[in-house]
Amino acid sequence: MKNILSVAAIVISGHISSQVIMGDAIGTAPAGQKVSVLLEFATGQNKGIILPYVRTMPTGTGLAEGTIVLDATNQAAARVKYYNGVTTGGATGWVDLSFGHDANISSSMTLQPNALAVTEDPAAKVIIGADVSTADGVLVLESLTKAMILPIVSDTNNIPDPAPGLMVFINKAGAKRLAVYNGGGWTYWKP
Q1: Residue 151: which residues within 8 A CB-CB, separation 6 or more?
Q2: Of 171, 179, 163, nearest to 98 (Cα)?
Q3: Per-residue pLDDT averaged across 15-44, rounded?
Q4: Closest residue by Cα to residue 97 from 75, 78, 82
Q5: What would the pLDDT profile of 58-104 be if each residue is shown by its tens digit?
Q6: How far is CA 186 from CA 102, 165, 168, in A?
Q7: Strands 147-148 and 139-141, bridge-based pairing
Q8: Number of C-alpha atoms within 13 angstroms, CB side, residue 137?
Q9: What SS3 state is found at 189?
């Protein structure tokens, strides 16, 4: 029931261009900064956001810069990647956030929908921050002035049994950074 209510809240807020807070009514952004946030998560939950697992890497005109996925085209060598839009000089536009470390997620893929058994509506998506978007994605945050605040944790060691594709922000003195889990290990990106 909570999942249905969460999805309903996201869909409704996407249509009225408001902010969505997942997990509680407060979130993590200070009150004065809420105006800059489209999507945020409750603090102290030791949970993250799971990226979409893709069996075929997205391409085409609807592919937006900033897209982040778990590349499961080779289930024995999965990696977290983001799209930066640079496709010149033989580049695909996809940047590896797993630092070249492969993860075997074959067992996790058995829990994901099978493309042969599920008919996917390519136009289906939730948009937060705008009425429409040309970007392809399951969840699209569309704003010129607002952003998403990732789930915040104090340490990835506090996350029990992380799922492949998990993404969090570590808020630890002297070690603030983005952390992504590809199913085989964490990689960290420090500003």
Answers
A1: 41, 42, 45, 47, 48, 49, 167, 168, 169
A2: 179
A3: 78
A4: 82
A5: 888 878 999 999 999 999 999 999 999 998 998 999 999 999 899 99
A6: 11, 10, 10
A7: unpaired
A8: 21
A9: strand
